Amino acid sequence: MTFAAATRASALEPESRLFAARDFTLESGVVLPELTLAYETYGTLAPDGRNAVLSTHGYTSSHHTAGRYGATGAGKGHKAGDVGSWDKLIGPGKAIDTGLLFVVASNMLGSSYGSTNPATIDPNTGRPYGPDFPRHTVGDVVRAQKVLLDHLGVNHLVAVAGPSYGGYQAFQWAVTFPDFMHGIVAVVTAPKNSGAPDATSKLIERLAEDRNWNGGWYYDNGGVVGVLTKMRVATLKFYGIEAQLSPQYPDAAPREAAILQLAEPWAQNFDANSLVVLRRALETYDTTPQFGRIKAKVLYVLSRTDKLFPPAIAPGYMAALGAAGVDARYVEIDTELGHLASGADGDKWAPALKAFMAELMGQS
Fold this sequence. Notes:
48% of the residues are buried. The protein is of the alpha/beta class. A hairpin with a 4-residue loop joins strand 7 and strand 8. The chain has helices at 3-12, 138-152, 165-176, 199-207, 225-239, 241-245, 252-269, 272-281, 314-323, 341-344, 346-361, and strands spanning 17-25, 31-42, 52-55, 90-91, 96-97, 102-106, 121-122, 127-128, 157-163, 181-187, 297-303, 328-333. The protein folds into two domains: 3-194 and 284-361, 3-Layer(aba) Sandwich (Rossmann fold), CATH 3.40.50; 199-279, Rna Polymerase Sigma Factor, Chain: A. The protein contains eleven helices and twelve strands. Residues 1-11 have low confidence and may be disordered.
């Protein structure tokens, strides 16, 4: 197979893989006896290991960021035919061009799509970690990804790019490993957690409304699919799914049914305790005091209609980045799709991303 053909195959029919390591020490000092990360790759790594991009994902999404799953290769929670969340942006000839770049899409530590998470069997007890999953941080998520990249032979990143929680990771990468990348692309996100101090406890209260909750030990009694489905429907609406589906479903009733159809598979596959531990990891997330460590160029992208990260937050963060001497530029997506815009309306900001990536690649 030629290089071009191999690249096209990688982009169009990716395969979800698993990486495993032993004795991963968290920032808390707790050691995970086994660390597993699910991941996908697109494109080909250059011999010097310096043409790579790390693609990071959102709070409740997965590492399936580009291409379409074929008959085989679909990761946990996915099926043949599923298209990656940033498929408009990542692939041959696209803004993140897999004809030139090697893209690694890593699932988060604590996520429910194949990586070590609360539903994983604790080798010390023989049962799921459940609510006893060790507390971890966004910094731990990033350091686990670094172990994966080392394993793959990546010596330097052109960029770290991702939306929402993936943007948190991009900022964290910039302060934790400031010399390891040329740039970051942080989209529909912020450099610090702006959630309420009691966000984790409120989330647990909501999950506990399900009669199967049992203090988080629901694995043997049917799970908490009911409450997760309701929560997912509400989240999708808050993110802007109604605007995305309105052209296809102009009437409210079929649109509501379509949203429920999207919510149910997620609720059946995503572990409720993963929601908790990933939310808890944000309690210490704040990169703003470390802006002075950032050496990467920053592309900060927000959506005009995003309720979660409204454009009103941009001036303060851009001023702080500038005051710290960071080369940062801001792009606003003119969209009706709210928090979902980075992927669903990817074509609207792809030119800005393509230009930024070309600039970073010129540094390599």
